[in-house]
Amino acid sequence: MKSLYFTTAILNRNRVRFIYGFEEIILEPYYISKNKTGKKVLYGRQYGTNSIDLFEYDKICNIKILGLEKFSPIIPIMPVLN
């Protein structure tokens, strides 16, 4: 069920709110993957920061899609070296 929520949010570019550990997180989700140990993880940017963070599925609960809040992903542009 978590995958359905996050996939919908990723495709529609919606922010999500969830509890991670004991902290409330507002996230701009980018993609779902598996880490080196085979556990599902979610990559995204926390609202108000510039870094991409990893969140383990096992620690995520109370997911809510924030339908009115859309985002545009940050795409890093590297200068071309000659």
Concise synopsis of the structure shown:
The protein contains 1 helix and 5 strands. With 82 residues, the protein is mainly β.
Topology of this structure?
Layout: H1 2-12, E1 14-20, E2 23-34, E3 40-46, E4 52-56, E5 60-70
Antiparallel strand pairs: 1-2, 1-5, 2-3, 3-4
Rg over CA atoms, rounded to whole Å, is: 14 Å
- The topology string of helices and strands comes to HEEEEE
Approximate helicity band = 10-25%
Shape assignment: globular
Structure description:
The structure is a single chain. By secondary structure, the protein is mostly beta strands. Helix content is 13%, strand content 51%. It contains one helix and five strands; from the N terminus they run αβββββ. A five-stranded antiparallel sheet has the order 4-3-2-1-5. The radius of gyration is 14 Å and the shape is globular.
Which key phrases capture this entry?
single chain, 82 residues, mainly beta, 1 helix, 51% strand
